[in-house]
């Protein structure tokens, strides 16, 4: 089973640590991945170092956020930390990677991957610097970063998931980086969290992110390895969630997890 997470907008910036080593990241040996990482990194660093104000506009930052532009300008030499520490926010707080049991941490190392606009796909133990680059960004000389990754990520995802189940927890923005081919879609489960109040259901960002983090934590602690969306729904039900299974689609099978409180 492979669980693919979205990145977080907020990130922890390490104060000390070795600089970025692209060759040391997971999937570096997959054809096209390292080359794409280098292209995106070069375009981002060059823009931020040569034109800070233009970079701020490109990255959707305000005039008081030039420190984030400087952060990106120094990516080649900035200290790195484990990806599961760099990514922060509601989902990652709920996941609580640092407090997982020893067995769950081992599972996380092989079952989790984070979609990244800068690195494509990273594992929890990969050492990366904090950065600012949204999945919908378009960089000078490069174009949309999503387009770069659509061309490069397929083999990396295929290698990571093998013949197992892919649990896709990416947000819509990052889902554009890779879409499952027909032969893989039947093994893809997407998860939507619905908040139910007074018989009415809606998607609420905080509930969605927090619940997904708790789901990932529970799956890692449980250790089960479902091999189909239906089996995943059964396991989540056993773990205490209310789950409704949708019909298979070209993107996978959607599981609706219905919650009444966060």
Automatic annotation (TrEMBL):
Protein name: Peroxide stress protein YaaA
InterPro entries assigned to the protein according to its UniProt record, in alphabetical order: YaaA
A single cellular component GO annotation: cytosol
Native organism: Nocardioides luti
GO aspect biological process, one term: response to hydroperoxide
Pfam families: H2O2_YaaD
């Amino acid at each position: 089973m492979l669980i693919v997470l979205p990145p977080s907008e907020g990130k922890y910036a390490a104060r000390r640590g070795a600089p970025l080593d692209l060759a040391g990241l997971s999937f570096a040996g997959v054809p096209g991945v390292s080359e794409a990482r280098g292209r995106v990194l070069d375009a981002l660093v060059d823009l931020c170092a040569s034109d800070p104000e233009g970079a701020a506009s490109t990255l959707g930052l305000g005039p008081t956020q030039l420190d984030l532009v400087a952060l990106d300008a120094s990516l080649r030499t900035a200290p790195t930390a484990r990806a599961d520490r760099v990514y922060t926010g509601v989902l990652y707080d709920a996941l609580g990677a640092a407090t997982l049991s020893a067995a769950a941490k081992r599972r996380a190392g092989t079952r989790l991957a984070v979609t990244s606009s800068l690195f494509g796909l990273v594992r929890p133990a990969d050492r990366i610097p904090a950065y600012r680059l949204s999945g919908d960004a378009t960089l000078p000389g490069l174009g949309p970063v999503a387009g770069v990754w659509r061309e490069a990520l397929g083999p990396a995802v295929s290698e990571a998931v093998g013949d197992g189940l892919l649990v896709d927890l990416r947000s819509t923005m990052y889902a554009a980086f890779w879409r499952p081919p027909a032969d893989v879609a039947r093994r893809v489960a997407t998860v939507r969290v619905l908040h139910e109040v007074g018989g009415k259901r809606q998607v609420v960002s905080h509930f969605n992110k927090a619940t997904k983090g708790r789901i990932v934590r529970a799956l890692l602690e449980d250790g089960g390895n479902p091999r189909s969306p239906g089996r995943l729904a059964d396991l989540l039900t056993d773990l205490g969630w209310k789950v409704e299974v949708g019909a298979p689609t070209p993107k996978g099978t959607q599981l609706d997890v219905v919650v009444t409180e966060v």
